[in-house]
Automatic annotation (TrEMBL):
GO terms for molecular function: adenylate cyclase activity; ATP binding; DNA binding. This is Predicted ATPase. One of its GO terms (biological process) is regulation of DNA-templated transcription. SMART domains: HTH_LUXR. One of its GO terms (cellular component) is cytoplasm. It comes from the Bacteria. InterPro entries: AAA_16, P-loop_NTPase, Sig_transdc_resp-reg_C-effctor, TPR-like_helical_dom_sf, Tscrpt_reg_LuxR_C, WH-like_DNA-bd_sf. Keywords: ATP-binding, Nucleotide-binding. It comes from Asanoa ishikariensis. Residues 848-911 form the HTH luxR-type domain.
Length: 911
């Protein structure tokens, strides 16, 4: 509690902690903290004290307002208003996104919300360059979802910027900030409570004790309740009355003050309460619409309920606002909202106008619903996913036409899913299916939402038959919609590697949608059929994948290219696969589509892994995991994490096992994730010489795939590792059986990698009389494949055999060639195994291996990007960091690797 002119009472430890954070910021570091506590516990007073003593720090501040929680980026707009002079320092794409999100400019196209988040970080960093910055967000639990996500995104990436970002929130789950330090406020101690009561006119020790116990140390209650007591009550001559919860006492005290106002004054105060963070000009406009004089606010200001300063209208405490709002009654609130809607006449106030109209509505209203639909479309362009979802939902509720109402609900559902409100989305999907009637397109979209949600939750098997039947009912009148829906259902058999059903589902979807012709092409349907055909070992997969390429490339980047690229990777059309992945990754970066990047980067990492480009694969996989985790979808995160584990297995990184097991835990029952995760565990065990462990993991993978009907080994590529592990453990006959399957796969598909792996397997299993000839043949085959790690492993096995045959000179030649391949690729564990074959003194690990081991994942991504010639600004845009943080990490990279400049990085890591 802050009393006028006397400062804060108590909170010495908390003030010291915040002062220390401010000192760190003055020294050039970033600090973030969340202050949590009950209503009235003193969070705002502590923030006021921090701001008052923040010498040398520029202060930007905002307060979350419950009635603005559906206005996208309202809180962010208010907080950053004093910082807008630094806008021109933002990268171009971020600048456009930020201006569109905060309604400073019209969006040319859809704005990805992560572009706005990155722009928020860049703006804070740019403002901090001009001097240390203190950003305060009070009542963060009432922030609109978009603002909260943007500020938390920035908070987690602040490092070397002179920014102190402080959130204050009630101790409720509404504002979750995992990973950010927290300061929990409890009640004041007895002596501080007594001092606060004394300053409020309470001198009686008995009354002090009663009020201290009743308020439980809550400073707002200790400061406010005495003001509602009589002199006799404060002196202890009259009982203070029955006990009641602190909040109820405060609300009663505020209500008593509000009831002392005239009806005109109460309506004026209510207008301020429902106006949120609107400017004073807008509030004055609403008062004029209500024929109320400006002087109608004077009494509330004199009572201390309201503060008017400049263009801001602020309540003394959020409980005052909520008490005013509750006491206004439904009719009064609607009148105030209607007046505010009429006052919102400017183009930048269109969203506020729509929401005020919605709050003023007493029933369905087509005009208001249309205004909200337009708000939803603007929110889409501005990147406010939750706000867009809320606007579509509210528009649907106010839409008189049932079919249009259903269509608007359909639009809301995937947005709620994307924002994380999956339970709410599920309820809306059920409502939508009751409303859609006979419109096949809307019904198909509603069912697709249900399939998408089920796939994310991992329970699509439970509704597979039901949705398949529903799609077939749509097929006669809406074949393309039905085909798209059936294509989505492939997630069910894909989870369990049921190739026969995958092929059946995808073939039917292709038949209905005819996805590569017509005005509305759906290349994903074709890519999924090619995916199933590869697994089934069907030759039709290659021409279908190639035919899908131009159709995918002609679309706006939406994942079609990435899905096609995955199939092309499996069938060894690596150049075409790279073009497809690069197309979607570049398109996603252009518009900051984080969802697409999180999907496409792990797939491209698999391509880079197969081509032996481990540095690039590691960078892609790390970024994919970071973005997938930011999205908060467990299945997406599992798929990205398993890609990272596979790269780490080749690198020999110790984190491989933890990441593989994390992926399995994130997507329980998803056999696709499990197979890739166990293949990583098996590959890591094989490279480390833990052959029984490798056999156990890889046998599980093999059993899983064969049980599901996977014919082509190109998808998981585990069989070569299994042959080597079985041979090393003496299971020769089993190894020969797996090698025979590899041979058959290579002969059937013409795959060059399976042929090379099969040739190495034959040589590994050959007896001493035929081994040399077999290894020479294997080297010739491996030399025809642009997969250097496969050639390196063949050279290693050949060198090992030559050493055992006591032909040391030839062995050294092959082992040194293998070592060069592994060191160049950064395959540290294979390089170490090769060095051990050469001699214990074969030399230290090369710089690329040492770098991968010495740097943190963040540092590695930055080092790799810098080694490709990217500037700090380009790296900052790509990694959603500030330029200063990139330079900070680069300094650590130079120090750890003993380098002095980017030129060193490019020369030594740029390959």
């Amino acid at each position: 509690m802050v009393a006028a002119g006397i400062g804060l009472v108590g909170r010495d430890a908390e003030r010291r902690m915040l002062a220390a954070l401010a000192d760190d910021v003055r020294a050039g570091s970033s600090r973030v903290v969340v202050i949590r506590g009950a209503a009235g516990i003193g969070k705002t007073a502590l923030l006021d004290d921090l701001a008052a003593h923040a010498t040398g720090l520029r202060v930007a501040r905002t307060t979350g307002v419950e009635f603005e929680s559906d206005l996208p980026f309202a809180g962010l707009t208010a907080l950053t208003r004093p910082l807008l002079t630094h806008l021109d320092e933002l990268p171009g794409s971020q600048l456009a996104a930020f201006k569109a999100a905060t309604a400073q400019a019209d969006a040319v196209g859809p704005v990805d919300r992560f572009a706005v988040y990155a722009a928020t970080l860049s703006l804070l960093a740019a403002a901090a360059e001009a001097g240390p910055l203190l950003c305060i967000v009070d009542d963060a639990h009432w922030l609109d979802r978009a603002s909260a996500e943007a500020l938390l995104f920035a908070a987690r990436r602040l490092l070397a910027e002179a920014v102190l970002l402080v959130f204050a929130t009630r101790d409720i789950p509404a504002f979750a900030a995992p990973g950010i330090p927290e300061l929990h406020l409890d009640g004041l101690d007895a002596s501080s409570a007594a001092e606060l009561l004394r300053r409020g006119g309470v001198d009686s020790p008995l009354v002090t004790q009663q009020l201290t116990t009743l308020a439980n140390g809550n400073p707002l209650a200790l400061g406010e309740i005495p003001q509602a007591m009589t002199d006799d009550q404060r002196a202890g001559r009259v009982p203070i009355g029955d006990t009641m919860p602190t909040t109820e006492r405060l609300e009663r005290a505020y209500a008593a003050q509000i009831s002392s106002l005239t009806p005109v004054e109460r309506l004026a105060l209510l207008t301020c309460a429902v106006a949120g963070t609107a400017t004073l000009d807008l509030v004055m406009g609403a008062l004029r619409e209500l024929d109320l004089p400006v002087a109608a606010l004077d009494a509330a200001t004199e009572l201390g309920l309201l503060r008017v300063s400049g263009q801001s209208v602020e309540f003394r405490h959020p409980l005052v606002r909520s008490t005013v709002h509750a006491s206004g009654g439904p009719g009064g609130r609607r009148a105030a909202h209607a007046a505010l809607a009429r006052a919102c006449s400017g183009p930048l106030d269109a969203d506020r106008r729509a929401w005020h109209l919605a709050q003023a509505a007493t029933g369905p209203d087509a005009a208001v619903a249309q205004a909200l639909a337009e708000t939803a479309e603007r929110a889409s362009r501005r990147g406010g996913v939750a706000a867009e979802a809320a606007a579509w939902e509210r528009a649907a509720m106010l839409t008189p036409d049932q079919a249009l109402s259903a269509a608007r609900l359909v639009a809301a559902c995937p947005l709620w899913i994307s924002s994380g409100a999956v339970d709410h989305a599920e309820r809306l999907i059920r409502e939508t299916l009751l409303l859609v009637g006979d419109d096949p397109g809307t019904r198909a979209q509603a069912l697709a939402n249900r399939a998408y949600l089920a796939a994310l939750r991992g329970d699509i098997d439970e509704i597979f038959d039901e949705l398949l039947d529903a799609a077939e009912q749509l097929a006669p009148t809406a074949p393309a919609h039905a085909g798209r829906l059936i294509s989505l259902l492939v997630n069910a058999p894909n989870r369990r590697w049921d190739v026969a059903q995958m092929l059946q589902v995808c073939s039917r979807a292709y038949e209905l949608a005819d996805p590569l012709v017509g005005d509305h092409k759906i290349p994903k349907v074709a890519a999924r059929l090619a995916y199933a055909q590869v697994l089934a070992g069907l030759p039709e997969a290659t021409p279908l994948a190639l035919a899908t390429m131009p159709v995918s490339a002609a679309r706006r980047s939406d994942g079609s290219c990435a899905e096609t690229g995955m199939v092309l990777t499996w069938i060894e059309r690596w150049d075409e696969a790279r073009r497809m992945f690069d197309r979607d990754v570049a398109g996603a970066r252009e518009v900051n589509d984080i969802s697409l990047l999180a999907y496409a980067l792990p797939l491209r990492a698999e391509l880079e892994l197969r081509l032996g480009r481990l540095a690039a694969a590691y960078a892609d996989a790390l970024e994919g995991v970071e973005l997938a985790e930011a999205m908060g979808q467990p299945v997406n995160t599992a798929e990205a994490t398993v890609a990272l584990a596979r790269v780490e297995a080749a690198r020999g990184a110790p984190e491989c096992a933890a990441h593989a097991r994390k992926a399995i835990a994130l997507a329980p029952g998803h056999l696709g994730v499990e197979a890739y995760a166990r293949s990583a565990l098996g590959a890591a065990a094989l490279a480390a010489g833990r052959y029984p462990d490798a056999v156990a993991e890889l046998t599980m993978v093999d059993t899983m795939l064969r049980a599901g009907g996977v014919v082509d080994s190109g998808a998981v590529a585990h069989e070569g590792d299994l042959v080597e592990a079985l041979a090393a453990t003496g299971n020769t006959e089993e190894a020969r059986a797996v090698a025979a399957r590899l041979d058959a796969s290579a002969a059937r598909t013409g795959g060059r990698v399976p042929a090379a792996v099969a040739a190495r397997a034959r040589a590994t299993l050959a007896d001493d009389t035929t081994a040399e000839m077999a290894f020479e043949a294997a080297l010739r085959v491996a030399g025809q494949v642009p997969a250097p790690l496969e050639r390196g492993r063949t050279l290693l096995r050949y060198g090992q055999w030559l050493r055992r045959a006591r032909r040391r000179h030839r062995a050294r030649t092959h082992l040194e060639a293998a070592l060069d391949i592994f060191e160049t690729a950064g395959a540290a564990v294979w390089a170490e195994q090769t060095r051990a074959e050469l001699s214990p003194s074969a030399g230290a690990a090369p710089v690329i291996v040492a770098a991968a081991d010495a740097l943190t994942p963040h540092e590695w991504r930055i080092a790799h990007a810098a080694a490709q010639g990217r500037t700090s600004r380009e790296i900052a845009e790509q990694m959603l960091l500030s330029v200063r943080t990139v330079d900070y990490h680069l300094g650590n990279v130079y120090r750890k690797l003993g380098m002095r400049s980017r030129r060193d990085l490019i020369r030594r890591l740029g390959g």
